[in-house]
UniProtKB/TrEMBL annotation:
PROSITE patterns: HEAT_REPEAT. InterPro entries: ARM-like, ARM-type_fold, HEAT, HEAT_type_2, PP2A_Regulatory_Subunit_A. This is PP4R1 phosphatase. It comes from Penelope pileata. Residues 247-270 are annotated as: Disordered. HEAT repeats lie at residues 115-154. One of its GO terms (cellular component) is cytoplasm.
Amino acid sequence: EPTVRTELMEQIPPIAIFLQESRPKFPTAFFEYLMPIVVRYLTDVNNQVRKAGQEALLILLEQDLVAQSDIENKVCPILLDLSAPDSDDEYKVEAVNIICKMASMLNRTTVEHMLLPRFCELCSDGKLFQVRKICAANFGDICNAVGQEATERLLIPKFFELCSDSVWGMRKACAECFMAVSYTTSPEVRRSKLSPLFISLISDTCRWVRQAAFQSLGPFISTFANPSSAGLYIREDGTLSIRPSAQDVNSNSCQPSNNRTLIASSTNAS
């Protein structure tokens, strides 16, 4: 019964945590018995079971309960298979969604070597606009996960494609994550490539795209500031914040207050 399998999946994370705390008594129980069930249910015929399996997997990754070998040898191959060009549409949409959510929880080498090539392929998926939209919505997180070099070499060309997609929702999603993408690149790339690209979004024929671009204008401009002097940085949740310098704090300068006002106004506008 699918309901039984769904209920089972919901119990996997707490059981895994218990086993982790009792590892001397159960050194291999999770890897031998529970992890194979999680992986198998990612391809279950029932979508509720698959959803429960995906949620369980993300919790396990977030709690750092999955071994690196299992990630590379069991989890990633399944997701790559489900997101293949000839995969079922429903499975592909689910796979790209979980790939994007996983990226921030895995080490950079694993993401870059195992998941990034497939993500780049999915950005150009001509069959399902839902797949491209998921890629566009999570583009900033992927850039942050792989770092500047891979972003500029592999992801920026794909970002250009998505920013000129025929579906306006794609372009709107790109405008919304523009700051996160810009923050991962070098000042030269921001100036020479991303600035003209942003102008195209702010001049888009669709008013929803233009509105999203104008809301991202302040945050995008902030990425041109020198972090060491302005104290601007991106939090883990993707929001822009400020870290006053020690000199400003000691001198009671009004500059941090002015910066906070600037960031607050940008945040409110966003």
